[in-house]
Amino acid sequence: MEATVSPNRRLESFARAEAADLYSFFRRCLGNAEQARDLVQETLLYAWKNLALYDAERPFRAWIFRIGQNRLRSFLKRKKLHRAFEEDAQRRPAALAAAPEEVLAMSEEERRLELAVRALPERQRIAVILRYHQGMSCREIGEVLEASENAVSILLYHARRDLKRRLAGQGDGS
User: Fold this and answer.
1) Residue 166 confidence (pLDDT)
2) Which CATH number is correct for 120-174, 3.40.50.2300, 1.10.10.10, 3.30.930.10, 1.10.760.10?
């Protein structure tokens, strides 16, 4: 069915029904609502301008998230935030980056988990967010990360192991 719908309609449908998922992805990666909204707009605009490049044999959602990941990477490079983001995630609670109403709604466990996810290496963090917050399969995540399904499974395995260590207070690698 997906192959019979025009790319314009797919993009319109995505923007209406699934842009919130893209926003959530950016919000969790960046910890900043305004930057996340800007990246959603940038991603959708880029996708619209490049609809001719879409391969109808591939999942549309994964194509949009791949564009989003590339926009995110470009954003981090442009602003030279990548290093600061990693250091910041190590130093301060994730709750400080969240909106006040989100902080109130988060339990201590959720805060610890959010901080631990933000401390993961970039590819692991993206894979975890796409899998457990966006519900994507390893195949779909592979489309986004331009990696094999097996490579995504390995990324997720290492991410889960690292998260368990961090949450157990054993982040020293023992």
Assistant:
1) 87
2) 1.10.10.10
